[in-house]
Amino acid sequence: MEDRSIVSIEAVIDHIERHLDGKLELETIAEAVHYSKYHLHRLFTKTVGITIHDYVQRRQLTEAAKLLVFSDKPVIEIALLCGYESQQSFSSAFKAMYKSPPAAYRERGSFYPLQLPFTLHPAISGREFTAQDIRLAEAADRSDWMELMRLVIDGYPVMDEADYLARLEESISEKRALVLRDGDLLIGAMAFTDSPGSITFLGVHPQYRSRGLQRLFLDALLKTYLPGQEISTTTFREQDKADTGHRDMLLQLGFAERELLTEFGYPTQRFVLPPKTQEDMGHG
Known about the structure:
The structure is a single chain. The chain contains 12 helices and 7 strands. The chain is an alpha+beta fold. The strands form 2 sheets. A 4-stranded antiparallel beta sheet has the order 1-2-3-4. A hairpin with a 2-residue loop joins strand 6 (256-263) and strand 7. It is globular.
């Protein structure tokens, strides 16, 4: 990607961060960074993995959730501070993403972000990766893994970092964690269990999401670590507005929908990749 593109997206993210208390629309953001709104829309979506509209909404609601838990400000004041014109519109948007009205979320007292400020990597390579480039994670990978997790936090509803880190350390020590690097940059990570076989985390750096790395991780898992096993995972339910494409990604990988679940109080759905489907994939 050209340096100018990186600089432009960084300028957009900086502008958004400085104006989270206002009405942020594509047209005004494009004017602020001197881009056409059509070009900026395509460039931002390709680089960050979601549209500017979705990114803005997720950032504003994340800041609102933080204020609900860590301040005593009235809900209407928080709504206005986070770019909403009324408490009603704020409450509706908040509940759609957090699955809880603002007052109930405040009462629960447990903050987790929908979207942290996006940090761009200035230079990504154009090299082709294979499943052989994926290796078992080591203790030295923990810090970079956590950074990647924060970038793709939208794929992990109800995040508790301390609990997540403890689970990650366990996965690494039991050789149930895989990583893929492009030089010094961790660009993909997968954690899994082996009895029964399940994927507990699959994250790909947003700037590499169009490179087919999810399938490489699945290939490595099926051929080397869990051959012949049924593989399950969970993700957002259909039409969950917090989903930025995880359901579609699983369906494209050959997973099939199964029962609806609730995990950590969050509505999810189980997906399964049967051994027969795996065999078909291997011959494809």
